Amino acid sequence: MNIYLIIFNIAILLLLIGVLVYMQKKHVSFSKRVFTALGLGIVFGFALQGVYGAGSAIVQQSTQWFDIVGTGYVKLLQMIVMPLVFISIVMAFTKLSVSNHLGKIATLIIGLLLGTTAIAASIGIMSSLGFQLEAMEIPSGEAEQTRGQELEQKYEQIQNLSFPQKIIELLPANPFLDFTGQRSTSTIAVVIFAAFVGIAYLGVARKQPEQAEMFKKIVDALYAIVMRIVTLVLRLTPYGILAIMSRVTATSDINTIAKLGKFVVASYIALFVMFAIHLIILALAGLNPITYVKKVLPVLSFAFTSRSSAATLPLNVKAQTTALGVPEGIANFAGSFGLSIGQNGCAGIYPAMLAVMIAPTVNIDPTSPSFILTLILVVTISSFGVAGVGGGATFAAILVLSTMNLPVALAGLLISIEPLIDMGRTALNVSGSMTAGVVTSRITKELDVNVYNEETQKLEA
């Protein structure tokens, strides 16, 4: 009997995909199809949970089939992340308009990413203190204890590394290994390697212009091919979001989320406040924040559902260039740097909130100015090299908690609501990198304001 119910559930998903295909044939806008997919996925997922139960075998087996569409789509995006990061950074160097003031652009982007992370950490601290969150209030079951043990094991892998050694870990000893994404710092390592290639190009361009011109043509060709692949994959976005959201809502433990509601609410209030600060920064730069919201919502929706800043990179860069008027070079820098530096949600708000919650367990006053200032500094510095995939926040939390001499295992207490909070964190990460790209373009007077202010947007080719 179960097999027929599973087939029935799959048939409904295929029917919903058919609705999205019909909308595409009717030339419904990309953003409308994305939000339709998001809504259909939520309704379908809750319907499955209401009929069968979140932990039922039918839901588990049905969502495994859904993953062919959802997880398959995310994997296709992840497939092109490293090539896109590498070729995007190299191409940024080959663009004359960017290379003329490359140092200023890189400094602005990194400064904005780190500055907003410091602000995010402050907001996380205030949210935890305002809601009086304490780790001792969270019930610890078998799942939480197991998660705590896993975090301790990860901590053991890095605890013997001094801070200088952690910085050394960012360097690409074997760039080909980093292209496979095997290390937690692989993304920033690829960025560094690409920067060396770009700097080498600038040197060759001065001394051997013919060879440099040939290399530039090769880079342009590779970039065109990679971006064409990006376009092909991005066309699958509504279907991927539908499947991902159906699985998330069908398998979420609503009862557990309700029990830890205060922690969820505190986290999302902090995330929304930080997003509002992004909009304030844009307004201070003389740009309409409402226009920004309208144009980036499809990108943030995918980041929310996929929980992967890396998988969102193609959409991130595409939106910056085609919808917000950011030059390709700056968009590539901001998007790529934002994967590993200064993630406002995962590396800013989350570790800061955890540290404040856990501090009382070891008799540390989380309201003391010295603790707060030290925490903000540690969070900001530790935001270097955070992986832009699901789990990056865990790595950031381990670094911050261990540096602050707080028990790492207690971070496992939030495992039951981790996916829900991670969705909002990832969306904020992506918004932070896009804000950095737009503001940097504005400061350097390279932003195409006409494109930014256009009512329409094109995220598809």
Automatic annotation (TrEMBL):
Gene3D superfamilies: Sodium:dicarboxylate symporter
Native species: Geobacillus thermodenitrificans (strain NG80-2)
Segments passing through the bilayer: 6-22, 34-52, 72-93, 105-126, 185-204, 225-245, 265-287, 371-389, 395-415
Pfam families referenced in this protein's UniProt entry, alphabetically: SDF (PF00375)
Keyword Transport: yes
The family this protein is said to belong to: Belongs to the dicarboxylate/amino acid:cation symporter (DAACS) (TC 2.A.23) family.
GO-annotated molecular function: L-cystine transmembrane transporter activity; symporter activity
Keywords: Amino-acid transport, Membrane, Transmembrane, Transmembrane helix, Transport
Subcellular location: Membrane
Domain of life: Bacteria
Annotated Gene Ontology cellular component terms: plasma membrane
Keyword Transmembrane helix belongs to the record: yes
Principal subcellular localisation of the protein: membrane
Mode of membrane association: Multi-pass membrane protein
Annotated protein name in UniProt: L-cystine uptake protein TcyP
